[in-house]
Structures
1.
Amino acid sequence: MYNNSFFKKILVVASIAFLYSCDKDYNEIGAGLIGENNFNLEKETYDVIAYNQKTGPIQSNNLAVSPLGIFNNPNFGEVTANYGTQLTLVTPITTIGANPYIESVILTIPYFSTLTSSSTTTGNVYRLDSIYGAEKAKMKISIYESGYYMRDANPVGGFQQAQNYFTNQNTEFDNVKVSNRLNDAVDTAQNDAFFFNPAEHVVAVTDSLTSAVTTTRTAPGMQISLNRGYFKTRIIDAVASGKLATNDVFKDYFRGLYFKMEKAAGSAGNLAMLDFKAGKITIKYNEDLASTTGGNPTRVKKTIVMNLTGNCVSLLENNFGSSGLAYNALPNTGNTSEGDEKLYLKGGQGSVAVLSLFNTPGQLEAIRNSGWLINEASLVFHIDAEAMSGSYEPKRIYLYDFNNNRPIVDYFMDLSSNTANLKKAKTVFDGNINVNATSKKGLTYKIRITNQIRNLINVKDSTNVKLGVVVTEDISVFPSHILRTPNSFITGAPKASVMSPLGTILYGSKSTVPSDKRLKLEIFYTKPN
């Protein structure tokens, strides 16, 4: 959950500034000593206690990207990703002309895609990004008017906090969906045989006077025709009663859309990550003006646009089956005293790994008294290559302060950027997957916690907090989302993990894990002669 408290914000900023000043002092002192060759670089490794922690249902409203579809993960079972969203009018409407007639109602949502080739004769060819599962897998998609009112504020506590919505609320939305599905076109590719189509959209318009043809090409995206008669009744006919006069009134009257995904015959389905907030419904209609032409009413074309913005929620249904049997059998909290052999990181309604450092009595104090200057401290996570051989692998994992559900100082102090792709920023902090050059399969993830360890050693009263590790959809997104049923041990998890449909299996820290695969803390340090 976002920390909106002004005091907390000030505390975080002040802490960062303080830690940065400590680090700056160290760098200045260390630079002089190293230049005089008074140091010998050495390495020490320390055991870590790392164990699994399931989140259960978790807050999933207002995500930057959300999954839609069906995805069967060989290690975590099958997930069906549905979606609920409000609509907002681009322009509120208070009047409508006479004899309105709807020509079309089109829902459009862009896909993430990459242009691979372009031709003036054959058109453009795209590759869809962020699609998981068999290519062009068929599914049944049903789009309904939602009957679930998604209010802005929580009445508990006097409407002082935002209302949250959670991954396990699909049944609540499904039970109050309105009428029949809106996508009832004869074209089954828009309903019972829907698939994420990589083809570009081509629209050719012929000028009635010159016969010139104008061709418009747009990148791949969902384009689904919705029932015109339904929108005539619910939207056009509602203008006179003031239902479209303001967005507050409209969102209570027409409560949004509910997307429901089901398997099509003979297909396991697949799943796409979508920016729903870039989607819209466009109603094109004709109406008569009050003025006349040659004694006849003046007929004009009009458009109503409703954006897929406002409150929204990712609705996930897990079916673990045989493929997710081992994961489903895991306890909610793993072995907190010895650590677990395998760490299961799962996005969505999933799981995190919890890490505890310096567990041997006197260990941290001995380092504090050693006079070491820390050059680098890092955690290297080894991937269970055999278990992950047939799976999509997360490109990145993220480590954070588990106790306080916020980033560690190394995250904030890494100012490396990537303007082309924010998801690839903070390369010093790292967490990116390292792959085998030949097989392209994952080997390790490495995360640097140098400043975290420096400050733990140099600032005597600093707290040795537990650390959390999750898969992440976007390293630039660091706020936390709350659990639907928090407890004294875990209250939330990073929002970017909720956004991800993927999971990975890493070797843990238990003594039964082979030494070359076991998770350890590595510290490279120098000590004055």
2.
Amino acid sequence: MPEERDPSPGAAGPARSLSRRSVLGGAAAVTGAAAMSAAAAAPAAAQPAPSAAAHLLSALPAVHDIKKRSRLVDYEVVELAALMRARVVTAVQVTKAYLDRIDRFNGPFETYGDNGLYNAFVRIDRDGALAQAAAADARFAKARHSHEDLPPLLGIPFGIKDSIAVKGLEAKDGSHAFDGNAALRDATVVHRLREAGAVILGHTVASAFSGSITGTFAGNAWNKAYVPGGSSQGSGVAPVARLAAAAIGEETGGSIMMPSAANGASGIKPSLGTTSVAGLMPLSPGYDVLGPIARSVRDASLILSVILGPDPADDPLTLSAPDPYPAMPLSARKGRRPLAGTTIGIPQSDWMRTSGGIRTGTAPQDTYDADHLAAFTRLVQQLTSLGATVKEFPGLDVTVPANDPYFSSSDVLATVDGSPVSPSSAVLSPNRYEIRYWDAVKDFAATRPADQAAALLAQYGRKAPGETEPSFESASRFAGQVPAAARVEGERRRRTLQANYQAALDAAGVDFMLVFSLGARIGLRSGGGFPVYRAYYQLPNALAWPMVSFPVGYDSTVGLPIAAQFWGPRFSEPQIVQAAIDYQEHFPQYHNAAPPDPDTTAATVAPRMLRSAEPATPPELSNDPLVAEEALR
């Protein structure tokens, strides 16, 4: 079927300004449900409230202001929302356009390996998506007479990471070891998307057990021979490759930011507690967050506005966020200098890791390749032209023990079974224990064939001193026997790290920070990985602070994207997102660019594998904080 072409002409809604909300994070707390929670998440009340919904709808662009794009799939979410409301296009047309591209460019489903094409979606619900789109069109038609207030994402097609519950679909977290893990209910975030009218296309592929920040199951949106970033790799690829209008990713340590950066997407990693993780197959409660990945930051902000909010029954950590949450920005501010009065800091001790190890004592920008350094220099000039003060400042050197008593500390707070308990393990291991992290997997494994059960044991078991084989019992026993005093001390140290980093910003008069998560052209899927990347990419997760990633250029040799990230104090999303929206309003050429379509002659069907087909993940590239942080000690 030929791809839908759009008949219409894009753009900016009314300007608005916000005050910053910077709230220091508290101690880690138990979140989510058990490891199999994708099977039984109980959705919370829909968000947003009616007054908030009116705010979201008021920010949609007028149809006559929307710039005509060459293909229907090139329109941003906010533009599609406006065009559907004007009945210029229909939800069914939009959904079919994305399904057509999935048919042509995704390759075979249920493949945790290289399927020859993008492999962004690991499974889709075609009939369900078309039914949802048809229902959306019926609501649009009815509203012309009833004047019903329609939800903001009505008819917009989404992909959902493979570790998040979508009712009626299996969630496998990147491995056939979870075959049969069918969701009985939607995760809270998916439920809120449905309440806002979204069309759920299906699951986007994840790294195996969400364990790698590089990823090889999917092909990069710009060149499928290159890594896509992980672990939310399919969610990073799908919006940019025009296989979905937007997607939901999950991050424990880099898993939204890295695929956003690698594919040139616009993604938001929220502060801990901003969005509910109920219905997520957890990795590390107290770090895990769900957030949007789209083509523009204003699209991602609209989506975050819909999915954030309290979920007291299923995720108590959401009670730590401001309520009501400060309104997320949805349009650029007026004028040529919208960033006037904003101070953006470049932390000089945010060390990068290269093939030679962590480059302590070397300014991050001194490790960038020529293309990344040119993009970085240009970005600083662009931000300055918009009125921002951009300056280098020390940041917080977490290699100094007095600065960081928690994240990469080698201190031993206790021993269990002869194994040391680090400060971060003292927090995260009990969190896992209290949600039945291992027991839930063990219960599921008991219902599966022997080969599946063995694969799960190999992934989740732990070999205690004196034992010959890993076991769920040893893993659970270790986490359950961390002394309460060690846990309290670990939580105190986490708060100290947060306070120390906030003090570093305050001392320099910095509102938020600018970093490059990736400092050189990424590698090939055949073992290339990330040649230069932030050594402490998990630090924002340990701090519970938010980040936003957005493209700022392209590599001169292969044409892969170059991306920047803003990050700041907990619950500073409105400020860092507003700055990114302002930037994209004045420099739209980066996020509006579209990759070439891949060659479709190489689609293959990989064999079903219970263990990962990805190369073994080095500990320093793990999304698991207890693995990655150990590599820093």
3.
Amino acid sequence: MASEEELFASVDALLNEEPQLPPPAERARLREAAGITQARLATALKTTTQSVKNWENGRSEPKPPRLDAYQRLLNGWAAKHPAPGAGSAAAPVPRAASSEPAASKVETAGAPQASAVAAAGPTRPAIRPAVPSRRPAARKAAQPAVDPRFPHGPLAVLDGDGSAYGTDGLVLDCPATTVPELVEWTLKESGLGAAKLNRYGKDSDPLIVLTAAAAVKLGLPEHLEGHEQRRSLRLPEDHPVVKQVTKAKWQLTQRGFGPWARIYRKAQGRERQCVQLAVLSWDALDERSWPGVSEMEPADIARVLGVYATRVITPRGSTAVSGLELMTALRPPTKAVRDEETGNWVSGYNAGSLGTEPMDPAPPEATPEHPVVVNSGWKGGFLNEEAYQWVRSVQTLSDEECTLPFAVGLDLNTAFLAAAARLVVGLSAPDRFHAPKFNPKIPGSWLADLSHIELDPRLPSPFTPDGTRPTGPAWYQTHTLAYAQELGHDIHPIEAYLRRETGAYLDPWHDRLKNAYVDTLADLGVTKDLTDVEFLAAMEQHKQNDPALAAVLAAIKATVKGGVGKLRERPQGKSYKEGETWPALSRPTWRPDIRAAVISKARVNMHRKLNNMVKMTGLYPLAVLSDCVVYPSLGESPLDFLPYAASGKPQPGGFRLGPTPGLAKLEGVQSMLWAVDLMEKGLNPARHIKGGDAVLDEGE
């Protein structure tokens, strides 16, 4: 029989054990029952919102002393909000861990949902836990989706063992061993997909991401082999998998079977039959847009893509492709209208959209190889509305500037996205006008001579991408001429191509991407309510807080630039000859005039801030590269030279720190000697201020 000392020792050991928390799903239920948000709970426990999310989905556990405080809070909530079916006098959450295996808990959590779906529609695949070695922390099963047609979220990552990892930690069993079987399973059993973003739009097709092991299991090569396959980025038409797809009466789009493959049949009534595949080992997730994602575990890849799909759109290709397709998803080209003669509902034009047919640009808006230019023999010049690439002449530096110790780079958050806000663009075909009166409210392209305008050599010209003074008549987008007028100069256009029908086409695109950007930054601990000092500190570590969400943020930024770049996609391939059409010209979203409007407004916004900085601080920039500007500074922080009022608030009109589009963040710090050395060599300090080989990337 055990002695008293042994019994007391055993009891003391139990008392000294860390408190055991209820299952993650119960933690979330208790918080929601108490009416407390994750952000408010994070504030109370002196942690981040993302940490609370991780606790509630089983990705991580709190550590003492936060663990004890969290346990006490959950006990209190459990007493007030007992689980459905529990007795009226609820006991505190027990400290002892359940003896039930973790795997059984996940299956139990998924069982009610699975049975509910089975009663409502087609049989769904079994939901099972992840293999421990593939995912270190247990995660809760997916909660029922808002749309009952897609209970398992927008996408899944398929591994070689048949595990299909969905969002929120869901894992499905996929029995498919061929691509046609995978397509059938996805459409009939998986419960994957996403509802349309606009009432007149279409549902998003389900996305299946294939790991290298899954690709091999389905008969695909782990890598595209051979020069021809790498060059064309697709399987040859005689590949066995392509033949399987064709034999099963499925079709591939003109892109063929490449890193992003769409497999479809013609829609039956309102039901679309299309599945999107992405092959990770074929570089479907480009490292520049999705940093580190392709090397993550399948469950983490599903999390990254799932957050992006929820906040932006289910990926349909590169981030550039997704950015362009988001425009159409939010502004569908058609809607159902009633035919007054027959009374039937027919497809009609959706006001504010770009319609269903491609539109020829005005010759100065096109590219030199465009059929409109080549076939007409146009020699009248082209729009040159591009982002800044300007370096100040070393000869204009003062002795005082040269003695300052630091060069500090500021980067504007998603400058192109900020420029898209309330941007009025043309919706109809361009009409030509001779000697028109300038109207800053009409979008279009204007031929005007701005070479007479005197410019400060210490600032870039607002009228040219390289910041040099115009030398004669040139084509400008409306915003560029409007800014010249704002600066007090008379504008007398020689001719113009203008559009009579206009609208803020990009507004919903801007709003969705802005919310995605701001929300993702907030999840990383960078919120709107931070002071400038706190903001700079949060930005220093935000990527380390959660690498998965940091990858989502990078993808959102790439979606903005890539989407704008796709509006003027150039021909690709050595076989192309000038004057021929190329695939991008067949879509209504090939609109170089809209791209020019966005970039023109972004460049004007940058110059306005540069000009206001001179007025408020007397400081002139050293260089500008797209949305990055470098200033000489007495200290290593932007706080050492940004303008603030006596109250401590930032002065409006100049550069301001913050997490929203159009506000600035620290890009990098180097010595002034380093910056001057680059300038003397003709190099741009803004390109290298971050300390790496950052390059201008407009997504083209």
4.
Amino acid sequence: MINIWRLTKIQLLSAFGLNKALHTREVKERRKLLLLSIAIVLGVLMIAVFSFGYSYAMALAFEQIGRVELLLAIMMAVTSMVGFFTTVYKASGVLFSYKDYDLVMSLPVKTSHVVASRILQLYVLNLFFTLMVMLPAGAVYALKAHPAAYYYLLFLPAMLCIPLVPIIAATVIGAFISWFSSRFRASRMISLVLTFAVMIALMAGSFTLNGNGQEELADLGTGLADMIYKLYPLAAMYVDAVCAYRIDSFILFILLSVLSFVIFAAVLGSRYKAIHTGLMTSHAGGKYTMKPLEASTVFHALYQKELRRYFSSSIYILNTSIGMILLLMSSVSLLFISPEQLGELAEIPELQIYLNTLAPVFVSMFIVLSCTTSSSISLEGNNLWILKSSPVPKHIILLAKVAVNLTITVPITIMGCVLLIISLRTGWMDNLLLLVIPVIYACYSALIGVMVNLKLPKLEWTSEVQVVKQSAAVLVAMLIGMISLLVPAGLSILLTGVDGKLIMLGAAAIMIGVSLGLYRYMKRNGERLFREL
């Protein structure tokens, strides 16, 4: 057990860049650690406040129909589904395709211990999100339902078991996708398409699962509960255990989760090397064909290089394009459900007004979630010296990374905005703001991402997951982007006497100024910032 604990601790410290920061004597590195700690604390507080407020609003609605326990059922199912989605494309990188596989396997440590430490790393990463969602939901349920003392004794151990089954299902599906795609020449593209297909199918299935909605909506509580329990049967056990204090359901839920996790870890540990070999074996490339050499500008060559790097990593694509996929799905769905109908279903009569005003912020939120530049420098890793020693202006290198980000976000953003304009049927001024503001935020997000990555690089990594999902630069860039969206959204909601268009125009002007300032700073200080990496 001591080996498992040591390996897990080292992997977690390395994943978040804390190992080097904790042991370095450089003032600059310690300052980065302090800033990172502050950013993490602010991010955790913001997520906790948002989660508590969202849970409280849901609890008020469920309290009216006498089904407050649905709050825990929904949050448990959502936590499991989000954990599943993120683990599908993260599991392969954490468990199999990490760079120091040969080094780790050569250590005097049992293979089963290595596998256990890798699985525990996945568990800890998923548990963090589970705590951020379930603890506020559990507190809200306690405030509204006033449960007995049994609730507090059962809630915590049951909550710790929530991520176990989703990790197993996601790892199996992710490994199968990697194995199947590796049999073909275009393995990365096939893996990407299959992963997207699984995620979209599950999302669509969750919406269409309740086919006969008209009859079940007669009793909203029963219909919603049935939908959740059909989607994820373990949610029924969880609610019975925590809310109804049924010890048999509690024991069954714990045993199913823990035993399946232990069996999965044991089977994976016994066949780990064979599975790793099968997953990492790829199809040989085709014959080389001699073609005429073509010359291009420095920027175009760097842009092509960055684009190839982006599409060479399925983890990179999945983590930075999921926001764009959600934007398209939301825009298409609003073509079939009018804002008025959506407002009636959500019991928010003013939803049409909010959508008209906050549509640019709504679209920009998906753009912030799709920032590629916050990890583009870190992904250079040991090859960064090539860019540092190249005889080209360093701000051109950074602009190429920004251009790739805009290539991914701007076309899909414009497509989504056009669909929203059709469905919302707003005036010309609202339509103009809806088209312009998200593009401004796309430029701002790309520039802020590359600047944050310059300040908080993570060049020593063993798996791309550590850079794309767990690095400090990604967290800080996302936090800054969300704050820049929450300010105009909050002002539009609070300042009811002010026209929302004026607030959006002000936000657009400020973002243009900030983006221009970031560009000038990058152009003037690009050389110095690159030398400091």
